[in-house]
Amino acid sequence: MGTALVTGATAGLGLEFVWQLATARHDVVVVARDADRLEQLAAQVRAAAGVRVEVLPADLSVPAELERVAARLAVTGEEAGDDRRPVGLLVNNAGFATAQSFVRGELAVELSALDVMVRAVLVLSHAAAGQMTSRGRGAILNVASVAALTAGGTYAAAKAYVRSFTEGLAVELRGTGVTATVLCPGFVHTEFHDRAGVDMTSVPEIGWLDAPTVVAEALAEVRRGVVISTPSVRYKAASALLRLAPRFAVRAVGKYR
Length: 257
Ligand SMILES: NC(=O)C1=CN([C@@H]2O[C@H](COP(=O)(O)OP(=O)(O)OC[C@H]3O[C@@H](n4cnc5c(N)ncnc54)[C@H](OP(=O)(O)O)[C@@H]3O)[C@@H](O)[C@H]2O)C=CC1
Ligand SMILES: N[C@@H](C=O)C(=O)O
Description:
The chain is 49% helix and 16% strand. The model has no long low-confidence stretch (mean pLDDT 96). It has 9 helices and 9 strands. The protein has one domain (2-253): NAD(P)-binding Rossmann-like Domain (Rossmann fold, 3-Layer(aba) Sandwich), CATH 3.40.50. Strands 3-2-1-4-5-6-9 form a 7-stranded parallel beta sheet, sandwiched between helices. The chain has a two-stranded parallel ribbon with strand order 7-8. It is an alpha/beta fold and 257 residues long. It binds NADPH dihydro-nicotinamide-adenine-dinucleotide phosphate and ligand LPIYNW4C. The ligand N[C@@H](C=O)C(=O)O binds at residues 145-147, 186-187, 256-257.
């Protein structure tokens, strides 16, 4: 039990995190841009799971809105006149595919990818780690991707940052009672590819993971204090190959998709 804050809670993996956490009796703070969708989710979760749900709409690419989420994470539960409970699990999940050529694409999209998938992860991890270490318990789960090991433009570079950053955070947090885990899935059936307008019809079903399994495995790994969580045997094998292969071979494959 305790309170979990999930970014990117309106769809895909984030939505699944919210449901699995709520049914395990966690209160949840749900963050995303679409306020209507968040309110609808909150009503459903309250009715079905009977837990507290706080709705915190925020565009994580906007510094002032990101700050509001960081301020929520900083709550320790000891502030006078504030009955909000401290967050014991942060899931930094929000993200999107850039799905464009870096050279010919829009610079604003590349910068927004960095803001949402790098800057927000850093800022929110900082706020959460400070509060959690002061209480001597908590967990941070950052969602990267198997793409972190590929040569796939700004998206892959952002995920490589998340993977490396989380490993470093896990080292720094040793002995504090707080853990850091990075989740590195392969393709998962969510809204991710449709939102980006990416045609994935050439990827066979064997290449796909489903959100309930990915999330259940990730939460189990968080409970065990695992640092790098790669769901499924096939993506564990693919990741091992990507780590062992010479980089020229990885580059030769080109973009991850
Ligand atoms: N699906 C896949 O194949 C894989 C996904 N991942 C990673 O998993 C994570 C979740 O993606 P997935 O569930 O698949 O994608 P979805 O498109 O299904 O969900 C993305 C979520 O992120 C939120 N979001 C996007 N941009 C912002 C923003 N600027 N501010 C706040 N919230 C935002 C969206 O909500 P809203 O629009 O309401 O803001 C939505 O809730 C991402 O980090 C992604 O990179 C990793 C590997 C594979
Ligand atoms: N694995 C996905 C996201 O990271 C993708 O690249 O489509």
